[in-house]
């Protein structure tokens, strides 16, 4: 009986937290979902006035494009962000980790591969000698 009540309470708190945190919005492709967290509001604004606003949304750059890998990364990021914002001190800025940087790099190359043969810095950077796009183009997409 007690374990059933505890399980019910945990499920109830989980559902309440999901609704309060607008969890369903993260299942969309809408950039506004990224700004549910106050830390990301400035980043959303910068994207809205940035170069890629008319051609790409957050998911185009920040998650893999394969169906399974996209949802796996969204779940991983969601779990990480939920833990961090619940149990750790809220950061002033969010920094991309190695996995996120690799995903962004792969997506830069996916869209801009045709530019690389004529790009003077296209060799010698990043994995496998590929260009490390964000090293030079740090403010593309948004300014922070």
Low-confidence parts lasting 5 or more residues at pLDDT below 50? Answer: none
Which radius of gyration do the C-alpha atoms yield?
18 Å
Helix content: 40-55%
Q: Please report the number of helical segments.
A: 6
CATH C-level category of the domain at 38-136: Mainly Alpha
Please state the second-level CATH architecture of the domain at 38-136.
Answer: Orthogonal Bundle
Structural class assignment: mainly alpha
Overall mean confidence score, pLDDT:
81
Fold and architecture overview:
The chain is an all-alpha fold. 50% of the residues lie in helices and 0% in strands. It has a domain at 38-136: Di-heme elbow motif domain (Multiheme cytochrome fold, Orthogonal Bundle). It has helices at residues 2-20, 41-48, 58-62, 67-87, 98-112, 133-136. The longest helix has 21 residues, at 67-87. The radius of gyration is 18 Å and the shape is elongated. The termini are far apart. The model has no long low-confidence stretch (mean pLDDT 81).
């Amino acid at each position: 009986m007690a374990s059933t009540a505890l399980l019910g309470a945990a499920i109830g708190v989980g559902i309440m937290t999901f609704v309060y945190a607008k969890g369903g919005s993260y299942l969309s492709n809408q950039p506004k979902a990224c700004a549910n967290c106050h830390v990301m509001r400035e980043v959303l604004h910068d994207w809205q006035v940035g170069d890629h606003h008319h051609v790409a949304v957050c998911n185009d750059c920040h998650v893999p494009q394969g169906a399974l890998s996209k949802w796996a990364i969204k779940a991983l990021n969601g779990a990480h962000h939920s833990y961090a914002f619940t149990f750790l001190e809220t950061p002033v800025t969010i920094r991309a980790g190695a996995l996120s940087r690799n995903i962004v790099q792969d997506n830069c190359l996916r869209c801009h591969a045709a530019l690389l043969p004529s790009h003077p810095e296209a060799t010698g950077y990043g994995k496998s000698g590929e260009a490390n796009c964000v090293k030079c183009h740090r403010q593309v997409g948004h300014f922070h």
